[in-house]
Amino acid sequence: MRITVLNGPNLNLLGTREESHYGSFTLADLEDQMRAHLASRADVSFYQSNQEGDIVTEIQKLSSRDRLILNAGAFTHTSIAIRDALAAVKVPFIEVHISNVYAREEFRHVSYLSAIAKGVVAGLGVESYLLAADFFLRSGVEAK
Hints:
The protein is of the alpha/beta class and 144 residues long. The chain has helices at 19-22, 27-38, 52-60, 80-89, 126-139, and strands at 2-7, 43-48, 66-71, 93-97, 119-122.
């Protein structure tokens, strides 16, 4: 199994951005924790972009062997293009959020992605990603 972790806009600013919502860890810290957590259990790759089209292109590169952990950041609440790419490739994915989006501004309560995701994990910091990875490892979930 290959797990792809795809992070959207502003997640490259982790560690300096709104620590009350996102904590003090960096994107590199998150990736290191994921590598350690998945060591010898799955291949893992990472991608981060602030550009919607780049994220769509990365999603289109996924194969039936992939499982996707996706934190689309603000694009969660705005991007039909990302949703359409996810629906087209039919790769199982879990939507993750570091902060509890449901305890924040009302516009963050709407996700264009949740309805087609295998699940959503929000508000648990790095643990959101680790739980998503564990789900894929234990469930043997198949592509749609």
